[in-house]
Amino acid sequence: MIVIQRVRVRWSAAGRGAPQANARRGLNRPVAFPAPLPEGDVVVHDVLADEAGGYVRRSDVLTGGVSIARRVTLWLTFDGQTVIVERLPGAAAFPPAEVSARLFTLAHGQVGRYRANFRFRFTDCACDPSWYYEDWVVHVSNGRVAHDRFLHGEPDLDVDKRVHLYGGPARRGNR
Fold first, then answer.
1. Distances (CA, A) of 31 to 48, 76, 125, 147, 174
2. In terms of Cα–Cα distance, which of 17, 15, 27 is closest to 137?
3. DSSP state of 68
4. Does the predicted model carry a pTM greater than 0.70?
5. Residue 1 has what DSSP assignment?
């Protein structure tokens, strides 16, 4: 069983200021899974806290085969007991992703964490300069985990791809 949790925080360009940043602070942290965790080869717990909804967290649980990971822009490949996790190209305007990127290879029982932030256009038309932003924290476990596993302890592998989305100096180091 592969368990994936993606926690996203979404805000508009108008929500970029310090007071709005304070309102969403900490919302990108993992949450406990619904108990009991459903059965399936792959279980995805997708959590969203959106500015438009007052940052109230909503979540969906999806189960299925390996292809279900595509719903959260991940590609899973198995090599014996290990799973290779890649991020698929998406619709983000920044940072651009034209090809898939390997995030990590997890042995059975390991947990990986991927952190990233993105800037998206509201439409595909270059004539519309409206943007929205998302901050992601994605945990992937190769094997069944306790409902609160992503809340406690450090992951075995950590990939931090967060970038400065507003211009200005780039982030330094991992957080």
1. 11, 23, 35, 9, 22
2. 27
3. G
4. yes
5. -
Peptide bond just before 129 cis, omega within 30 deg: no
Query: Is the CB of residue 65 less than 8 Å from the CB of residue 76?
Result: no
From CA 102, how far away is CA 87, in angstroms rounded?
Answer: 6
125 has pLDDT over 80 = no
Strands 74-79 and 57-64: unpaired
62 touches 21 (CB < 8 A): no
Would the pLDDT of 175 be above 50? Answer: no
pLDDT of residue 89: 84
**Alpha-carbon distance 119 to 95, whole Å?**
7
DSSP-derived pairing of the beta strands 111-121 and 157-160: parallel
CB-based burial of residue 90 (10 Å sphere; 0-12 exposed, 13-18 middle, 19+ buried)? exposed
Contact 2, 76 (CB under 8 A): yes
